[in-house]
Structure formats: C-alpha cells, structure tokens
Amino acid sequence: MIIGIGSDHGGFELKEEMKKFLEENGYQVKDFGTHGKESVDYPDYGRIVGEAVVAGEIDKGVVICGTGIGISISANKVKGVRAALCGDVYSARMSREHNNANIIAMGGRVLGVDLAKEILSAYLKSEFQGGRHERRVNKIAEIEG
Ligand code: RB5
Asked: Relative to the CA of 73, which ligand 1 atom is closest?
C-alpha cells in the first residue's frame, strides 16, 4: 500500500516522525513535502495529497498542519476526497469504518508522537464497513455534484 504524506511547516516534524513510522511498518511512503521548517501555505499540501489520492497515485493520504484544520479543509475541497481530522483512536477507526476516509489529517502542534502513531495505525488497519454507510458516503459525493 502506498501512503502519501504532506504537511506545512506546522506539521513538518510530525510528518517526519510519521513517515519513519510508516516505513518501519512496511508501508511505501510518497512524501509530498514540505521538506523543512520554513513557512509555507498548508492549502498547497492538502491539495497535492488530495489530488494524488483521487488520481489513484497513492492509496491513502496523511496530511498534517499545526492543528490539522486548514490542511483538512483544503484537502476536502478536492472532489472525491474524504479527509478526516482525527485527534483520537476511536475517531480514526470510525473514519474508515463509517466514512471511508481516504485521507487522515492530524495536528502537529496538538498531538504527541506516540498518540499520533496510534491514531495512524488505527486508521490504516480499519476497513470500510459498507452497507448503510455506503449509502451515506454516496450522498456525500452527491453534494459534490
Ligand atoms: C500555520 O501557522 C498554521 O496556521 C497551520 O499550520 C495550520 O494550523 C492551519 O490550520
């Protein structure tokens, strides 16, 4: 499974940690930047990861900014993206099981590294349950038009 990862400067350090964690756990990682602590604009990174997941270039995406808010809003503007901002393990699991989230967003200035690893693991190990949830996810797509 190829995981795309992207962040702004506020998420850079956590991105580096998550990238290492993913590689250690056997995932192939595509890093969309940013590659340093200089100030950049989070919409650029939410967009590029969002477009990659919709294009099928990556299987799932991880986006990180300071709070996770700006980058998740940005990724969600790409048609076909369902980005879930998660700060706990339960939400991460549900974002897959119920919402079929194709991107997880996290806050680099909010989460500790160990919690972020648990959240990311829960997200990646959980599967969409389909059924009634499929109907609801399809309705999200209808809103997109
Ligand atoms: C950048 O300072 C900060 O605004 C950004 O990382 C993010 O938290 C926005 O939602």
From this structure: 10
What's the DSSP call for residue 131? T
Residue 99 near residue 44 (C-beta atoms within 8 A): no
Which amino acid, 53? V
Residues 2-144: name the CATH superfamily: Sugar-phosphate isomerase, RpiB/LacA/LacB (3.40.1400.10)
Which residues' Cβ are closer than 6 Å to ligand 1?
8, 10, 42, 65-67, 69-70
pLDDT digits (tens, 9 = 90+) for 62-115: 999 999 999 999 999 999 999 999 999 999 999 999 999 999 999 999 999 999
Are the beta carbons of 88 and 67 closer than 8 angstroms? no
User: Which is the catalytic residue, given 9, 35, 65, 133?
Assistant: 65
Average pLDDT for the chain: 98
Q: Where are the domains of the chain?
A: 2-144
98 is catalytic: yes
Active-site residue, selected from the candidate residues 9, 35, 98, 133: 98
